Amino acid sequence: MNYHARIRELQRRMEAASIDLMFLPITADLSYLTGIARDMPNFGATLYNGRWMEGAFIGKEGTPIITLPRMTAEFHAPQSEVGEVRVLPDKDDAIAFAKGVLSNFKVGAQPSIAIGNFAWAEATVALQNLLPGAIFSNASDLLRPMRRIKGEDELAVLREAGEVTEKAFTEVLKKLKIGMNELEICAEVDLQLRLHGAIGPSFTTSMYNSGPNHLLGLGHDNQNRTKPLVGPVSLLFDFGAGYNNYCYDYGRTVFFGEPTAEAIKIHRTIMDSQAAGIAALKAGSVTCEQVDRAARKVVEEAGYGKYFRHRLGHGIGMDVHEPPFLMETDTTPVEEGMCFTIEPSILISGGFAARVEDIIVARPNGGEPLTKGFQELIVVS
User: 242 - beta bridge partners?
Assistant: First the structure.
């Protein structure tokens, strides 16, 4: 990854937008610009002195200044490909430290400051107190257009993330047996992701199971998560690897027991729908909503339109969900190098369900899938 070139391009955009200074916490935006890796998040916040300034200040010229509390620097040791690192000791005054950092940037009495989407509110309040005339804006306005098109170096990492994801799924399938419950299977998925090189799951591993004796449960408070899965029931996997700063998102359907003709038809329909969406993902020729329509038409013509209850897909890269989205009303033109999930599903509570999901790269002649395994309905008996 050419992080120096990315910083230069950002600074060019800052100049054009009259942005004097940008502050980014340690998020996908900062990873994109500097290579600083993110850790898996904690459930509860861990507060350090000056935790609000954990990130980087970037001016319209010169090198970024990366500011880290001592605890972050020592316990997490974030590595940056660009910039100067400054560490705030536990005993020092965070506001005085920030004032010293700001003195390195040429900002006037009313500077325009762009703040990262996930910065602490405390960061904005502190900067407002230090620079009372500051005018704030959203840094994503400058960064999202840069991150939208993936270069070949990024696609190489996403392909590796896909390989990790499918290798993990291969091992999970070997361990599936009737009578397991959703929690056991999800825990095995997370274990196998890590064993195959992921930092962990790129989002909370999920399952949506459906059958005559298994009412479809959505959400992580689903009360069916500990119920033994006894056929006939369809298991819908939704997971992906967090790998080298990028996110994978993947889905397949497994059937416990002997699948009925209806279950087979439903699975075939969503596979055909995905194929139609992939074929329609023609860079330079279509909009996002047109791709959604192409895939959705297959499900509607099969008689299951009302059971396809969500958008066809979303942008993906360093974050799991990134704009634009493959859905009605999103008229964004599809450009080469955009990456989307294409994930049709048929969700019938009390009946059988199915879903599939892969990351697809937009190309002039149609989409390029980054994963292609397990195209047939997987049966565990």
Answer: 200, 247
Per the CB < 8 A criterion, the answer to whether 348 and 310 are in contact is no
Q: Of 116, 145, 137, 114, nearest to 322 (Cα)?
A: 145
Tens of pLDDT, residues 212-236: 888 787 765 566 788 899 989 999 9
Burial 139-163 (b: 16+ CB within 10 A, else e): bbebbbeebbebeeebbebbbbbbb
Q: What is the DSSP letter of 334?
A: P
- Rounded-to-integer distance, Cα 75 and Cα 224, Å: 38
Torsion angle (degrees, nearest 10) of CA 277, 279, 285, 291: -10
Structure tokens at 315: 């942008």
124-136 pLDDT, tens digit per residue, is 999 999 999 999 9
CA distance 356 to 347: 12
How many percent of the chain have pLDDT more than 90?
A: 88
User: Rounded distance, CA 241 to CA 246, Å?
Assistant: 8
| 206-236 as b/e: b if 16+ CB within 10 A | bbbbbbeebebbeeeebeebebebebbbbbb
The gap from C-alpha 239 to its chain's centroid, in whole angstroms, comes to 11
pLDDT digits (tens, 9 = 90+) for 197-216: 999 999 999 999 999 888 78
Q: What mean pLDDT comes out for the span 17-40? A: 96
The sheet with strand 246-247 has its strands ordered as: 200-201, 241-243, 246-247
Domains of the chain, start order = 3-146 (3.40.350.10), 149-380 (3.90.230.10)
Q: What is the pLDDT of residues 253-276, one digit of tens each?
A: 999 999 999 999 999 999 999 999
Q: If you ran DSSP here, which 8-state letter would residue 99 be given?
A: H
